[in-house]
User: Fold these one by one.
Assistant:
Number 1:
Amino acid sequence: MIYEGPKIIELGESEALARALGVFKSVESTLVPSGDDAAVVGLLDPRVVITTDTMVQNHDFDLGWSSAFDLGYKAVTTNLADLVAMGATPRGLTVTLVVTKDTRQSWLEEFAKGLQAGCDNHASQCEIVGGDLASGDQLVIAVTAIGDLDQPNPVLRSTAQVGDLVVVAGTLGKAACGLDLLRSADKTLADSYPEYVEIQKRPIPDLVLGMELSRIATSMMDISDGLSLDSARLARKSNVTLRLERRLLEGYAAVLEQAAQSINSRVEGSANQWDWVLHGGEDHSFLATVPPGAKLPRGAKVIGRVDHRAENDIYLDDQPLAAAGWDSVTG
Amino acid sequence: MIYEGPKIIELGESEALARALGVFKSVESTLVPSGDDAAVVGLLDPRVVITTDTMVQNHDFDLGWSSAFDLGYKAVTTNLADLVAMGATPRGLTVTLVVTKDTRQSWLEEFAKGLQAGCDNHASQCEIVGGDLASGDQLVIAVTAIGDLDQPNPVLRSTAQVGDLVVVAGTLGKAACGLDLLRSADKTLADSYPEYVEIQKRPIPDLVLGMELSRIATSMMDISDGLSLDSARLARKSNVTLRLERRLLEGYAAVLEQAAQSINSRVEGSANQWDWVLHGGEDHSFLATVPPGAKLPRGAKVIGRVDHRAENDIYLDDQPLAAAGWDSVTG
């Protein structure tokens, strides 16, 4: 990924932004677009749903792996998944980008294309309505997303009911598998499993499925830090215990087994598909609880059930499952 | 400013946040506070106003000058001023904070106190409803603010009318004067003019006055990058020319004259109070245009008038005034 042409610092903020902003499309709900002190977005419901997420160079991403387009795309989809996990329809995004003195204008424009592509593919009625371009020693991408509440009540993490089924919508472990493939000393490995590497670089949460699931869910969240850690959070917030079943998770592990074996056939390999499924983050799939009689939307899969609060937050079959996932400060 | 005790990285994200979040107060309009995938804020009007602004260590602030409290306070007030400049009442903030491996928990907690104090003093019905704590090589503070539109139409930059008066609400040049005082090799100078140094560290825009002004303004904006640069932006957006009068700005310059002389009495000094008034940023006062017959709120001052589009964006008396202010990328 080579980015050529002038550096942003050579153009200055106004000129750099003027060129990059041309990439963005407008949507009907934006009443005042970016370019004033603030933007104005018209919602259908006066309850605005808001979330924010940040990615820091060399901590959350590596420019050797991820293109500017990838990073823009990922910044959008990770935030949109959080809105949908509340049952909200995405309407607007603000994007803060800290660039370095070496960042090229062409990088910025590819990043903008990635942002727009994330909206186009996942939330075509969502616009990039504001942002800030700043200068620093490393790249930082901070996105805030706002959404329109699309149902009577937001879907919280704290309202799972004993007797509910535990449901997942989306992939589990593929992004973590992709990360291990990228990290392998054998650089040909990543090319052998492009699907998993792509999901790591550009998560593609199924927001339509997420919205459908949100309409029947008693509780719901975005799985960003791994199934075990996020399940434990939901269990604690709801004061219940989640009992997951290995047989119901077999399918997620089975598709990753070959990739794990490929990594392990290399000198440094110590991959395990179950670690990815249980503890791997960044798929940005949805974890929900639904009443036992509910009709599941196509693509949602039962992985366990909600039980009375026990000694541990989550169990896998009869064994306590330790929550092990990503901490954004300690890594 | 010494911050002691454990480092954030030693505590981890969850524990560090749990301790810092206790500082924040809740307000009635927050329907779902931080702690879920997203927050939910109940607005009176379904048109949400949104803005974002970022500060990067060693580019936008210096830890030798600004305390953690100062930075939290400034991050809040600069964003709230942007909302008010649209005629919106602040309702919620999300805060992204990138910390380094050396940042102390006590710094984080003072920062949180500064955020809350900014709300308490300027927008008591605004809550910190979300955020993200990340790890990086330098501190970055990115805030997004949302507000409730409090009048029939947002007040734009693009709607100044020929014949209007140009009005300022708030100080001009004090923050820039404070910056030059801090930069002086004579470290006693900053202590001699605490008011200007404080405004640089912790801008205190009069949001109540700003809201009153917004109700009669034909156009309005927050002066963040300096009177000349921001006036030029407003003029261009509205396709008019602003004619400012030196005699109407004399008062702003007069109060800063002594500080300029003090700096100039030192070896390296080359300060000028008129440079501060015309080109200095960061006071976060309000620039507005109002119809000639309008009754100005107490504290708003006329500094010129709106004329038909001429060759230049702005004039000071009969001379074109060059727009010279802050570019957040080139500095």
Number 2:
Amino acid sequence: MSTPIRPSIEPSGIAQVLHGDRPATSVRRARAFDRWLVAHLQRIITPAAVRLELWDGSSPYDNSATAVGSVVIHDRRTLIGLALHPDLQFGESYMSGRLEVRGPLEPVVEALTRVSQPHMSWCDRVTLTLPNTLTASRRNVHGHYDLGNDFYRLWLDRHLVYTCAYYANEQMSLDEAQIAKLDLVCRKLRLCPGERVLETGCGWGALALHMARHYGVHVRACNISPEQLSFARERAAREGLADRIEFIDEDYRNVTGQYDAFVSVGMLEHVGLHHLESVADVLRRTIRPDGGRGLLHFIGRDVPCPLNPWIRRRIFPGAYTPTVAEVATHTLAPAGMSIIDIENLRLHYARTLAHWSERFALVKDRVRQSYGEEFERAWELYLAGSQAAFATGWMQLFQILFIPRGSAPPSWTRSDPYETPRVAR
Amino acid sequence: MSTPIRPSIEPSGIAQVLHGDRPATSVRRARAFDRWLVAHLQRIITPAAVRLELWDGSSPYDNSATAVGSVVIHDRRTLIGLALHPDLQFGESYMSGRLEVRGPLEPVVEALTRVSQPHMSWCDRVTLTLPNTLTASRRNVHGHYDLGNDFYRLWLDRHLVYTCAYYANEQMSLDEAQIAKLDLVCRKLRLCPGERVLETGCGWGALALHMARHYGVHVRACNISPEQLSFARERAAREGLADRIEFIDEDYRNVTGQYDAFVSVGMLEHVGLHHLESVADVLRRTIRPDGGRGLLHFIGRDVPCPLNPWIRRRIFPGAYTPTVAEVATHTLAPAGMSIIDIENLRLHYARTLAHWSERFALVKDRVRQSYGEEFERAWELYLAGSQAAFATGWMQLFQILFIPRGSAPPSWTRSDPYETPRVAR
């Protein structure tokens, strides 16, 4: 193609693009080729009622009154990128400011998500077989979770729980719903005072602290994010729970000992498809064969599908959101575990993300000052895109409760967890 | 092997064998070979504390005080059969009386089940790919379900529910627990008055009648057992529910129309591994895309494994008990469905079967008079063996609730089904 392509906008140029002070080149008229290409893209996304608009204001969408919002494409390079690799380029261009969304961000992303189809390309299949080595896992986790506790404190709930909350009723605040989630996990596991619990991927320690405080158990909680661990240890000491919780800097694959209960909330997504079987090894080794039980809480799928490539590049390198069938086949069956109970909390995650987005919007300027505009826009899109993914059923949130095959389930019926919360809501 | 093998006992000889009046040949002394072989079998089942005994009273088990019971092998042919193909020959020999169990049957079978390992042989894999054609399905169903309503009326609950009951509390009777199961299914599906429900494999119609009576829905219920259908139609007419239920003589693959809810209790085991995808076609066609939901209640496994070969030969030809992963992969994913909730009621089935066995024992003589001794012994073993399979975790009972991908789940949390039973227990 001989059409000259506009050079990339450097971060320093974002402010100009976003705030109207655009370089002279960006207001030049779109050519016939540009109009043809944007019309083609508009047809592909037709049911979405999202209006595409070119840098000169032209648009193939003739009914802007019904559109939930507009996507403004600022240059030809972005337009071509969107045509060639929309899943990656939408995020890249939004982040760099070469693409703008006019109107509320989440509904636009949700509308676009609804017209997408999950698929697994040849390239995805190859990429997914690449192992997350111990070193790679540390690097991946460090990149996301060690952004600084201060960053997460700006917009998470007060206990820093960075996983799907459980809105036991629809009026709950984010803080209440996170506590309700911690408690739901404990009740599903039927924790009893004095029992030993292993938690892998403990984040800032909120679940470990909740289990130790309200259920009287001894917790061994591991994580490979130093920032999170030091926060968790400080909190345990401050709250007088240090004698009941051991926070250890260890990869889940290296954990030793045998426990009454195993729990992992929001870690399975990070182990990668290739390593679901290494989780099986851990379960087989660590769960007491008679009377032990485990719970996995993770973002999953209905059909095997890699994460959006932009999310993999910018937010969660090495992550994979597995299906129930994949977890059952590669983790639970080889570990000798029986599925007792599965719950899908997809819409609870959509609501959690809506709450996070609301709170993030309030601190947007502070994030921009500390981390730069690209970072702030990337996170804004990541939160909105994730909310859209759960709202549309593109992604699921599963809690799976399991026990060693042939052992007694922790309860005769599962009704109790919903009747007797240990913690007042 | 040159040892002469005793000819097969014909059914007419069973009484002699069972009641001590054995043919003279059977009391001849066991040879060194027999004692070597039975000692070998005893070692294999060692952890089971089940005593093996030969026809002359000799046994390699030296601690009969701790044994839960004895398996008495009446002839060499049975001994060799057990060594070569235990899974099939145990049932065949028990049924024909060539093998006897002294002591309570279920604990012995349970102990033997615990020391078995589920496995899928080469031959199993081939067999499982054989399709259940429409004709074969009718033949398979006819063989089991058309034994005569009178037969099932002898020992099932009063509404003739021939699937796992739900003991909402441990004191429930079988009758109460079957009603509780019907109601649990309705509440999981959140049925509303006026809705249209499709039920495939409706048995004697108990669930269809319960849904129509207590939830005010219109039910289309299909089955391919003429005896069951005529019973169900009569009951609907007698109870004044005929205008709300249509019982149709149709294979699940041929059902048409679109419904608010789909439900199938105890049918998926009969479709065969090869036909899990044909269930997907039905779900995709019949469940309303927006707001529809479905429930599959079926006997399943933790790992892929064929049914016991004796059960396949004598009780359920063409049946296969799938794993959650198989149902998710071959039925729900291709149907475009999202898993909302899974519950494993394994121990409830063990209890249901214990209740069935108790009731069966009370009518044993009548069954023997009407259907013969082989039949009665086969059913006695089938019930005890199934109870053992659920008690040991060899088999599972799954209820899977699902919805079309991206549509709204029937409820915000799942707590309600346990709090507000529509029917007094």
